[in-house]
Amino acid sequence: MTKNKQVNAAIIIIGNEILSGRTKDTNTNSIALWLNSIAVKVQEVRVIPDIQEIIVNTVKDLKKKNDYVFTSGGIGPTHDDITAESISKAFDLKYEIHKNAFKILEEYYKPGEFNEGRQKMAWMPSQAKLIENPTSGAPGFIVENVFCLPGVPSILKSMLGGLKNEISGGQPILSYTINLRTVESEIAKSLTNIQKKNKGVEIGSYPFFKAGKVGVSIVLRSEDKNKITACNKEILQLVDEKKIQLINQVN
Amino acid sequence: MTKNKQVNAAIIIIGNEILSGRTKDTNTNSIALWLNSIAVKVQEVRVIPDIQEIIVNTVKDLKKKNDYVFTSGGIGPTHDDITAESISKAFDLKYEIHKNAFKILEEYYKPGEFNEGRQKMAWMPSQAKLIENPTSGAPGFIVENVFCLPGVPSILKSMLGGLKNEISGGQPILSYTINLRTVESEIAKSLTNIQKKNKGVEIGSYPFFKAGKVGVSIVLRSEDKNKITACNKEILQLVDEKKIQLINQVN
């Protein structure tokens, strides 16, 4: 992949516990922040239940549409962990014991503790490439452009760093934030005009409430630093004209 | 809708700021918990960017597949707030000033403060039904089975309660949690067998780490209380046989 191309990814969060509200998903944010830092743009996130047919269809759909797909959840030892088997089906691969994963797990556990439940974590799509797990032994895995990670947030986070060499990002997406003491409606019309004149910059407007005071964060995102600089100049001019208090600017 | 039917919903989170990782989504969890409490099952969540074509297609797709669809985000006063216009397109309705929304907003703001930016929040699909906003004036809206809510978490939460009469839930989904001082692999095989014998109960297994100690929450979910009781009995028997410490049971 060349550095001029935009590189896209999708995230699939697998788990009934997120859909029922029992568990608050934080893995989307961890993966999104990390991908953003290596210049990969997340296009879409889906949260889906532990149902094989749905996992298979969602993976098949999103792996075609994106450069990379990340899944989180469903690779543990219990009956409701069906991601590895589903990924095998999605790629039409055998679901079998991965010799190297088996070896890693066998060495990780004390003699006699590598029981049937734990052995299940060595079952993967054939030819899967392992993702090292520095926290709890059980590896994740990669099949073509699909990266399968666990659902436990701390373990997932510990595994992302090791993936840097597996992924080629695109042109880095630069971001610049201008925090203003105002309300959105005060600047909405002018911001619309500035957006129209600055097509190469994505201008986001996000109200916030902090320490009892309201404000708006204007976020400029682009692959081109000059375009951000030009757009920022217009916004600072607007701030000046409207006599709005500028809280700060953050790179 | 009768009380015997399962009632399904999908959630669409609209916003580039979630996909870039800038903002952590908590609205999925708020909506999911609330729907769960009124016996509506969330089947799917999608996080999508502020792009009209994608919003239109996602809404069209999910409104057919689900009894209810909830959107969050994109109904504010700025140029990147394009949900109302997109919903109009998805339903082939005019995008126009909603007289009642205009009146509510006009009364909410002080004289002279109801500017063009704020007036934008009265633009909606024609014939939209308003959702009252007890926090900040600007109403959400309903078109057929699609409910459009704002992205600011505190405002979204304040609006959910008022929707109870708009939604008919199904058979309540009962849930029972058994917290054990064990690890998943210890009980995985037995749990698989119990799941096979208890088809009417969805058994979830979730490892946790709390105050330096590991444990597993077994969550039983079913519409039938007797089925949960029978399944729970088998799990307590397993706990007894394996001499696992039972931390507690939570209804």
Concise overview:
Two copies of one chain form a homodimer. The first copy, chain A, is an alpha/beta fold.
Helix and strand arrangement:
The structure is a homodimer of 251-residue chains.
Chain A lengths: L7 E7 L1 H4 L7 H11 L3 E8 L3 H14 L2 E5 L10 H9 L3 E3 L1 H10 L7 H5 L2 E3 L3 E3 L8 E4 L2 E4 L3 H8 L13 E8 L2 H14 L4 E9 L2 E10 L2 H17 L3 E6 L1
Parallel strand pairs in A: 1-2, 1-3, 3-8
Antiparallel strand pairs in A: 4-5, 6-7, 7-8, 9-11, 9-12, 10-11
* Bulk shape of chain A: elongated
Order of helices and strands of chain A: EHHEHEHEHHEEEEHEHEEHE
Distance between the termini of chain A: 27 Å
Poorly predicted runs of 5 or more residues of chain A: none
> What assembly state would you assign to the polypeptide chains in this entry?
homodimer
Give the helix level of chain A as a range of percent: 25-40%
Query: Largest chain interface and its two residue counts?
Result: A-B, 61 and 61 residues
Query: By helix and strand content of chain A, what is the structural category?
Result: alpha/beta
Strand ordering within the main sheet of chain A: 2-1-3-8-7-6
Describe the 3D structure.
2 copies of one chain form a homodimer. Chain A has 9 helices and 12 strands. The two termini of chain A are 27 Å apart. Chain A has 2 domains: 8-166, MoaB/Mog-like domain (Molybdenum Cofactor Biosythetic Enzyme, Chain A, 3-Layer(aba) Sandwich), CATH 3.40.980; 174-250, Alpha-Beta Plaits. By secondary structure, chain A is α/β, with parallel strands linked by helices. In chain A, the strands form 3 sheets. Chain A has a 6-stranded mixed beta sheet, with helices on both faces. β2 of chain A pairs antiparallel with β2 of chain B.
